[in-house]
Specification:
By secondary structure, the chain is mainly alpha-helical. It is built from four helices and two strands.
Length: about 160
């Protein structure tokens, strides 16, 4: 069992997720996005349960309507804040996937013995240069993804 905070790593190497909740572990039927949705729903349910206790008898109908309206407004504002970050994370993940594919293709080409013959020097140079470019871009994209993911997780935890 691993517990990394790198969601991309989890998506690529894990085929099932355990859910540890309420003092027990059980298989989770879903992916990381499903887990995030489940966690958000659990937090909302906990907030709903706590709200009536905070007001004593729950207040009158007008107060409850106003409270629901405010909660809906907060959820809407949170979604508006999250959306650009979620889009950025998805875009970076797509680019990482493309770069991983190109990196794999370049690696396979560089394994060809004929490439190291004198006649193929220029092609070898091109491939090595492109591999260095892909490696550098991938490192930069992964850093950006990590920052965006952390910002998104911080935003979700504030909700």
């Amino acid at each position: 069992m691993i517990k990394p905070h790198d969601r991309h790593l989890l998506r690529t190497v894990t085929d099932e997720f355990p859910l540890v909740a309420e003092g027990r572990a059980q298989p989770f039927d879903g992916d990381l996005d499903d887990y995030r949705n489940w966690l958000n729903e659990q937090q909302r349910a906990a907030n709903r349960d706590a709200a009536p206790r905070a007001t004593g008898n729950g207040g009158n109908a007008v107060e409850r309507r106003e409270q629901k309206r405010q909660e809906a407004e907060r959820r809407q504002q949170a979604a508006v804040k999250r959306k650009p970050l979620e889009q950025r994370v998805r875009k970076l993940e797509q680019r990482m996937e493309q770069l991983h594919g190109e990196q794999s293709r370049l690696h396979d080409e560089l394994l060809e013995p004929a490439l190291y013959e004198d006649a193929n020097k220029n092609r070898l140079k091109e491939l090595l240069l492109r591999k260095a470019q892909v490696d550098k871009e991938l490192e930069e994209i992964e850093g950006e993804w990590l920052e965006a993911q952390e910002a998104l997780e911080a935003l979700v935890s504030e909700e």
